[in-house]
Specification:
By secondary structure, the protein is an alpha+beta fold. The chain has two helices and 15 strands. Strands 1, 2, 5, 6, 7, 9, 12, 14 and 15 form a nine-stranded mixed beta sheet that branches.
């Protein structure tokens, strides 16, 4: 009897989990603040020292093990550091990836979808600019785009804007993110800092909570059923 009850709980947990996943609609919100606890980081310094030209598409591995493909529209972005190859408003020494003035966006396509993604960004030429990110789904379909206004200067004190987005449902719906500066003095030429991503909770944790809920419902049903039989 216990095995049957547990099997029923497991089946019900699975049904609840599937229902919760299918009912969660992909919705996103702009994030302009650097997350205090991301997560995982794609560190550009892993692609080489400053002044290294990166032939794209190229593979990169985040600190936590997630992999991604970096693409610059077939261009060759360059690895720079703030204060060493780049004179801007990132934190001193921050590893950067510059599109090398080819006016192509920089896109990261993740090996597994993430819940959030973003990076600091600065346009090549000093002055006001508008940064833009675009999020893509499993079929490379455009999910949404966000823009943010920034100012490019050489203060070297980590004032570069952060532009990112997160799933408001907490689900991993972001398969790729593209960065650009469509409105800047010098055109779509820019550098971005390390890309931060939100990694989804293990599926087992959701299943565990669903299982607890399912078994609680079973117990509640039995309690009501017992009362009905006794009355």
């Amino acid at each position: 009897m216990k095995q049957i009850a547990w099997k029923y709980c497991s089946l019900l947990a699975g049904a609840i989990l599937m229902l919760s996943v299918s009912s969660a609609q992909a919705q996103f919100a702009l994030n302009t603040s650097i997350p205090s606890s991301p997560v995982d980081t794609f560190d550009w310094s892993t692609l080489g020292t400053t002044y290294t030209n990166i032939t794209t598409p190229a593979s990169i591995t985040a600190i936590g093990g997630l992999t991604a493909t970096v693409d610059n529209g077939g261009g060759t972005p360059e690895r720079l550091d703030e204060g060493n190859g780049w004179s801007g408003n990132f934190a001193n020494g921050a590893p950067l990836l510059w599109n090398q003035g080819n006016e192509n966006n920089i896109t990261l396509t993740f090996s597994s979808p993430v819940t959030a993604a973003g990076a600091q960004i600065q346009a090549d030429d000093y002055g006001s600019f508008t940064a833009e990110i675009s999020l893509y789904g499993a079929s490379n379909n455009l999910l949404t785009s966000f823009t943010e206004n920034g100012a490019s200067n050489d203060d070297n004190v980590n004032s570069a804007i952060f532009i990112g987005a997160r799933s408001t449902t907490g689900t991993a719906d972001i398969y790729a993110i593209s960065f650009g500066t469509p409105e800047a003095v010098g055109g779509n030429n820019f550098a971005i800092g390390n890309v931060l991503v939100g990694v989804p909770e293990p599926a087992s944790s959701y299943a565990g909570w669903a299982g607890i809920l399912a078994c609680g419902l079973v117990a509640l049903h039995r309690s009501f059923r017992k009362r009905e039989l006794q009355s």
